[in-house]
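Supplementary Methods. Inverse-folding protocol.

Structures were first reduced to a discrete structure-token string of length 397. This string, shown here, constituted the complete conditioning input.
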């Protein structure tokens, strides 16, 4: 079920703008007879023409848009069905090469309210990436922070800094910006996963860099170890190698295994059942992936979490500044974001724009979920908002 949001114009008092009178200037101001605007006179009209000519815009005509009482995101809530994404990605696998030019066979989610840009939200990029059997995605690096999350399949190794890292269902693989990386599929079948990056954020602030690497990775990087070098160093709970101490901007642990995520979520719900405070709310377990060198987020601009909602539980509506993208890992349920309500199942993705209320009802069972609950992977731009002292949240009782 999908309920469409009202996208009609705001009911607020009209502002003094929107009609361009001089083709030689991009600034356009129109005097409006409104209670909070100056009295419309020939002198005011002449003043506005002077503003337009000198590329000036008065705050009193713009304050309702520039400084609203709460965030009004340009993005809208939206859901993408995994089955459809996977089918289209498979067709792209037959038609689109993965080498230079194609670079990555990545297909981005485009929010319907962002003018066709490949953005899930104004700050977040999400894409399905698809690699055919025996294929290599060539090496490159970029300042954008990135991760990979695997909802199904195995057999692909991502190679970060010449360290082959296996990717399997439920694994979360962060990669801080400006690290060389490539991928290779050692399996006899295609594999798909989701990519998350801060591409829109870096693009809008004009701070991004990109560089091509090697076209072909070495034989030594084509090995398929069960554990990467990074996991052998950093993949031990509460233990850090003394030779590598020192805070890092991104996590040096390149893969967070599903078995550990699953165990942590299971333990939270079991502790709750025993009467101990362990969950975010009744029946709602949640974990956050952290950087083992400093306890902060795994990436400087992206927060990543995993949520488990027990069968029959409905979460309290929650609003947060900043946007989030969720992917259903297992189970089924009903999600409401603002004025939109959807049924979701394994693999489906949905976006929660800034300050839109989110509630989730789990309808999972043993027939569609290994855990018997609704499991969801989440990533957000929360670290940006926290660094700027703009993080706010509200939960309905």
């Amino acid at each position: 079920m999908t309920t469409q949001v009202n996208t009609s114009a705001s009911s607020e008092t009209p502002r003094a703008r929107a009609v361009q009178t001089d083709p030689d200037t991009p600034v356009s101001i129109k005097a409006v007879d409104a209670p909070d605007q100056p009295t419309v006179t020939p002198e005011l009209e002449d003043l506005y023409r002077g503003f337009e000519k000198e590329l000036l815009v008065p705050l009193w005509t713009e304050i309702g848009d520039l400084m609203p009482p709460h965030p009004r995101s340009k993005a809208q809530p939206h859901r993408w069905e995994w089955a459809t994404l996977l089918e289209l990605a498979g067709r792209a696998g037959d038609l689109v090469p993965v080498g230079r030019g194609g670079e990555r066979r990545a297909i981005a989610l485009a929010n319907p309210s962002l003018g066709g840009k490949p953005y899930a939200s104004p700050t977040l990029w999400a894409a399905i990436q698809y690699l055919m059997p025996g294929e290599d995605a060539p090496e490159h690096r970029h300042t954008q922070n990135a991760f990979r999350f695997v909802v199904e399949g195995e057999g692909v190794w991502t190679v970060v800094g010449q360290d082959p890292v296996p990717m399997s269902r439920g694994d979360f693989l962060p990669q801080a910006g400006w690290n060389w990386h490539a991928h290779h599929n050692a399996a006899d079948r295609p594999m798909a996963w989701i990519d998350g990056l801060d591409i829109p954020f870096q693009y809008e602030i004009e701070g991004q860099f990109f560089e091509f690497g090697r076209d072909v990775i070495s034989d030594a990087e084509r090995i398929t170890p069960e554990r990467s070098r990074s996991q052998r160093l950093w993949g031990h709970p509460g233990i850090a190698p003394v030779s590598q101490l020192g805070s890092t901007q991104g996590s040096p642990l390149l893969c967070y295994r599903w078995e550990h995520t699953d165990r942590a979520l299971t333990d939270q719900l079991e502790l709750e059942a025993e009467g101990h405070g362990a969950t975010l709310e009744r029946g709602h377990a949640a974990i956050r992936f952290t950087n083992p060198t400093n306890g902060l987020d795994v990436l400087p601009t992206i927060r990543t979490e995993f949520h488990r909602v027990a069968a029959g539980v409905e979460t309290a509506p929650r609003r947060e500044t900043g946007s989030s993208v969720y992917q259903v890992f297992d189970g089924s349920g009903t999600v409401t974001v603002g004025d939109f309500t959807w049924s979701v199942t394994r693999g489906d993705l949905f976006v929660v724009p800034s300050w839109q209320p989110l509630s989730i009802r789990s309808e999972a069972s043993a027939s569609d979920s290994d855990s018997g609950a609704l499991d969801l992977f989440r990533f957000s731009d929360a670290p940006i908002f926290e660094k700027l002292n703009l993080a706010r949240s509200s939960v309905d009782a």
